[in-house]
Structure to design on (136 residues):
């Protein structure tokens, strides 16, 4: 059984030059997906650094992490609905799906062990091509 400060394995799926890549990373419970991505060289942008002011950390989540009301299971094992602010930012995201969330708003929980988080093929950002996001 996992304890609070244990880690889980998260699989990232992302695209580079139309090539699909996957990367498994050990992820600390409680960290945001944005932090996990940046700490493990996964190309998730996060231009606003987690302040819910952009959609560049848009991820497509594994459907099994949602309940029938499309609420996400959070780090404390509670189902929570998406906030209005996050929903407004997601409206601007490229490739929006029913399981889209902002990576800065999702914190790793034991329920995410071996789940896949997909980074869409494109993002809506004004960064120059080739921009590499810094670690937070």
């Amino acid at each position: 059984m996992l304890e609070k400060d244990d880690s889980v394995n998260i699989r990232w799926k992302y695209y580079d030059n139309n090539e699909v890549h996957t990367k498994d990373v050990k992820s600390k419970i409680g960290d945001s997906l944005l932090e996990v991505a940046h700490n493990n060289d996964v190309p998730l942008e996060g231009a606003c650094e987690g302040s819910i002011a952009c959609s560049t950390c848009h991820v497509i989540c594994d459907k099994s992490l949602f309940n029938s009301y499309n609420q996400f299971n959070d780090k404390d094992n509670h189902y929570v609905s998406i906030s209005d602010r996050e929903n407004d930012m997601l409206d601007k995201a490229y490739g929006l799906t029913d399981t889209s969330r902002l990576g800065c708003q999702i914190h790793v929980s034991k329920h995410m062990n071996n789940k896949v988080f997909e980074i869409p093929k494109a993002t809506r950002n004004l960064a120059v091509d080739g921009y590499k996001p810094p670690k937070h």
Observations:
- The first strand starts at residue 7 and ends at 16.
- The mean pLDDT is 86.
